[in-house]
Design a protein that fits this description.
The chain is of the alpha/beta class and 328 residues long. The strands form 2 sheets. A 6-stranded parallel sheet has the order 2-1-3-4-8-7, sandwiched between helices. It has a two-stranded antiparallel sheet with strand order 5-6. The protein has 11 helices and 8 strands. It has a single domain (6-308), classed as 3-Layer(aba) Sandwich (Rossmann fold), CATH 3.40.50.970. The structure holds thiamine diphosphate (TPP) and magnesium ion (MG).
Length: 328
C-alpha cells in the first residue's frame, strides 16, 4: 500500500476541481461563441487523469490525446495560459498556434498531443527511449483511449518498449466509446489490460473514477519503469460525461439512463469528497478549495480575454520550413 498524506489528498482534489471547472468553462465559452472548433472535454475522467499525473515527478513527461485539456492541468499547468491558448491568443502556452487538440506545456512535462488517434503512443515511447539512451531516470507516461488501443501504433509501441525495457507507462482511459461506437462492438477483449500479455509486460485494470486506485496502480508502474523494470499497461475504466465533442455529434448511441448513472453515482469529484471526509476533512475545507479554484478560473478568463491575438507575421515562425511568399 502506498501512503497518501493529507497534502497529497488536498492537491489531488484541487487538481480534479481545476479540470472540472476549466472544462465547464470551455463548454460555456464555446456555446457562447467565444471559443470555436471541436472541443473534446475530459469531464468525468478527472480521477484517471489526476491519479496518473500525480504519480509522476514534475520532470517526468506525459503525452495526451485529442481529449487533453485536463491532462496538462493534471500535471500542474497554469489555467490562464491554457485558456488563452484555446482562445488563440499570443499569451497561450503555444502562442495561440496549438489550440484545443495540439497543446503542449514543456514547463510541466506535457510533451503534447494531436488529433490523430493513437499518435501519442510512439511519441511517448520515443521519449522513453531518449531517457534510457541518455541515462536519465525520467519516466514517460502516455494517455490514450480505448479506441486508440486497436491502432497499429499501440501494438508497435508496446512491442518495442517491451523489447528495449523502456521506462514508459501506458495509461488506457477506457471510457467505453470511440466517438459513437461502443467498445463492446469494436474491441476484441473486455479488459484492454489483458493485451499487455502479448507484450510480456504487466497489465492491470482499475476503477478510473477512484483517484487513489489509479494513483496506486500508476505509482507502482512508474516505480517499475524508473527502476529499470520496463513498461506497464494500466487501464482505467472511466466515462466521459459530455458528448464526444461539445455540440457536435448526436447522443443516440448511449442511453439517458446510462449517462445519468455515471453522472450521479460515479462522479469522481463526489467520490473523492467522500474520501476526504473519511480522512478527516470537513465540508468547509473542501468548499474552500473549490472556491479558490473558481477565483483562479475567473482570473484565467479575464487574462485570456485581455490578451492580444498573435501578430500576422507570427504565421511565418515556428515552421519546419519557411514557405513565406516573397514580396516579388
Ligand atoms: C487516426 C484517426 N482515426 C480516426 C479519427 C477520428 N476520431 C477522432 S476521436 C475518435 C475516437 C477515439 O476514441 P478513443 O481512443 O476511445 O478516445 P476518446 O474519444 O473516447 O477519448 C476517432 C475515431 C482520428 N482523429 N484519427
Ligand atoms: Mg474512448
Amino acid at each position: 500500500m502506498i501512503t497518501v498524506d493529507d497534502d497529497l489528498l488536498r492537491e489531488m482534489y484541487r487538481r480534479m476541481s481545476r479540470i472540472r471547472k476549466f472544462e465547464d468553462t470551455t463548454k460555456e465559452l464555446l456555446l457562447a461563441g467565444e471559443l470555436y472548433g471541436a472541443f473534446h472535454t475530459s469531464t468525468g475522467q478527472e480521477a484517471s487523469i489526476v491519479g496518473s499525473c500525480m504519480a509522476l515527478r514534475i520532470d517526468d513527461s506525459m503525452v495526451g490525446t485529442h481529449r487533453s485539456h485536463g491532462h496538462p492541468i493534471g500535471k500542474g499547468a497554469q489555467l490562464d495560459r491554457l485558456l488563452a491558448e484555446l482562445m488563440g491568443k499570443e499569451t497561450g502556452v503555444n502562442q495561440g498556434k496549438g489550440g484545443s487538440m495540439h497543446l503542449s506545456d514543456f514547463s510541466v512535462g506535457s510533451l503534447g498531443e494531436t488529433s490523430i488517434v493513437g499518435s501519442g503512443l510512439p511519441v511517448s515511447t520515443g521519449a522513453a527511449l531518449a531517457y534510457k539512451m541518455r541515462g536519465e531516470d525520467k519516466v514517460s507516461l502516455c494517455f490514450f483511449g480505448d479506441g486508440a488501443s486497436s491502432q497499429g501504433t499501440f501494438h508497435e509501441s508496446l512491442n518495442l518498449a517491451a523489447i528495449w525495457k523502456l521506462p514508459v507507462v501506458y495509461v488506457c482511459e477506457n471510457n467505453g466509446y470511440g466517438e459513437l461506437t461502443s467498445a463492446k462492438d469494436a474491441i476484441s477483449v473486455e479488459d484492454i489490460s489483458v493485451r499487455a500479455v502479448g507484450y510480456d509486460m504487466p497489465g492491470v485494470t482499475v476503477d478510473g473514477q477512484d483517484a487513489l486506485a489509479v494513483f496506486e496502480a500508476v505509482s507502482e508502474a512508474v516505480e517499475r519503469a524508473r527502476g529499470g523494470g520496463g513498461p506497464s499497461l494500466v487501464e482505467t475504466k472511466t466515462y466521459r460525461f459530455e458528448n464526444h465533442a461539445i455540440g457536435r455529434l448526436p447522443e443516440h448511441y448511449r442511453s439517458a439512463e446510462e449517462v445519468e448513472y455515471w453522472r450521479t453515482q460515479r462522479d469522481p469529484l463526489v467520490l473523492f469528497r467522500q474520501v476526504l471526509m473519511e480522512r478527516g476533512f470537513d465540508e468547509q475545507q473542501i468548499d474552500d478549495l473549490d472556491a479558490a479554484v473558481s477565483e483562479e478560473i475567473v482570473a484565467a478568463i479575464e487574462f485570456a480575454r485581455q490578451s492580444p491575438a498573435p501578430p500576422p507575421e507570427a504565421a511565418f515562425t515556428h515552421l519546419f520550413a519557411n514557405p513565406a511568399p516573397s514580396a516579388g
